[in-house]
Every structure is written in structure tokens, then in C-alpha cells.
Amino acid sequence: MITIIDYGMGNLHSVQKALERLGYAAFATDQKEKILNSSGVILPGVGAFGDAMENLRRKELVPVIHQVVEQGTPFLGICLGMQLLFSTSDEHGFHQGLGVFSGHVKRFEGDFKIPHMGWNQLIKEKDHPLFADIELGHVYFVHSYFVELEDSSLLLASTDYYGKVPAVVGREKVIGMQFHPEKSGKVGMTLLNQFAKWSVEK
């Protein structure tokens, strides 16, 4: 069973429905034991970094997420959920993240449209089992902040939005996707299916 962490922020329903369309059982919960006993865990997210971390702390889910990662359970952070995996953010003040990966979340700066919203091409940066037998194409982004990586080995795929932007990051079976796979057509659903397959195979 794949668990979607319910911490009061995120596109829980759309992610759950996407997994069900792919044929996988999924449910949203904030119950620690259910999360820890899941075959795979997804951290979605829509909203502000600081609010999200406050909700996770209030529900005492920060140590649960660390335990999930440490025990090797496949883990996927989507959009804000990906950003929360990193060390810090300067979204509406300075905030500590989950610190699973090293890096800082910062706002786009420049004379171009913010937020970055719409379809952009994924560019593979390194081979990873997530991309097995997948032809990368366009996926759907909605974000005003991006991750500045401290460890370049985490970068699995990027997109070009007035410069290189991390789009998929990861190490082993801990993955972050800046875009919304559940809203990204065939490419997004294929990537989501690949993660779900890992969860079943665990």
C-alpha cells in the first residue's frame, strides 16, 4: 500500500486518483504507524514552505519522514514536497527544511514571468532506474521557488526556465519531482508508475 502523507497541504486527491488509475492502492493519512508500514510514501505539497514545515512539526511527522527514508522505503516528494526535502528555504523568511538532501530553496529572480507555470521539457542529467524505458518529454510545472543544489550528484533531470532548473532529484529510491506528475500526461504518469512499481517490489 502506498501512503500519501496528509499534513493539511497538498494535492492529495489528485495524486491518489492518479495512482488508482495506474492500478495501485493508495490512501492519505497522518497516522505514523501506517506511514512507517507503507510500501511507498509520497509527500505532496502546494503552498508555502514555512507553513508546510510547521504543519509537519505540529503533527510530529518530521521524525517519521526521516525514519521512512532511513529504512529504505521508496519516497517521493512532489512540487513543494520535493523542496521540503532540502535543508533551508527563504520563502517568506528563513526556514529549516527536512534536511534529507543538502540545498537551499530560493525564489526565481529576473525579468521573466513568475511563477514558472506551464509545460516544459525534461532534460535527463544522469541515468537512474526511474528513467528506465522512458522517453522524457514535457511535464507541468507551477512554482515560484526552485532548489539550489549543494550536491550536483542529486540532479537527475532538469528543465530550462531562463537557466537550468532542477526538475527531478534523488538518491537511490528517495526522489523529488518539482513538477506535478499527476498533471503531466503520459510522461508524468509513466514516472509515477515507475515509482509505484518500486513500492510494490520493495
From TrEMBL:
Subcellular location: Cytoplasm
Domain (Glutamine amidotransferase): residue spans on this chain: 4-195
Domain of life: Bacteria
Main location: cytoplasm
Any one cellular-component term (Gene Ontology): cytoplasm
Involved pathway(s): Amino-acid biosynthesis; L-histidine biosynthesis; L-histidine from 5-phospho-alpha-D-ribose 1-diphosphate: step 5/9
Keywords: Amino-acid biosynthesis, Cytoplasm, Glutamine amidotransferase, Histidine biosynthesis, Hydrolase, Lyase
Catalytic activity, reaction form: 5-[(5-phospho-1-deoxy-D-ribulos-1-ylimino)methylamino]-1-(5-phospho-beta-D-ribosyl)imidazole-4-carboxamide + L-glutamine = D-erythro-1-(imidazol-4-yl)glycerol 3-phosphate + 5-amino-1-(5-phospho-beta-D-ribosyl)imidazole-4-carboxamide + L-glutamate + H(+); L-glutamine + H2O = L-glutamate + NH4(+)
Enzyme Commission number(s) of this protein: 4.3.2.10, 3.5.1.2
Pfam families reported for this sequence: GATase (PF00117)
Protein role: IGPS catalyzes the conversion of PRFAR and glutamine to IGP, AICAR and glutamate. The HisH subunit catalyzes the hydrolysis of glutamine to glutamate and ammonia as part of the synthesis of IGP and AICAR. The resulting ammonia molecule is channeled to the active site of HisF.
NCBIfam families: IMP_synth_hisH
Record note on quaternary structure: Heterodimer of HisH and HisF.
Protein name: Imidazole glycerol phosphate synthase subunit HisH
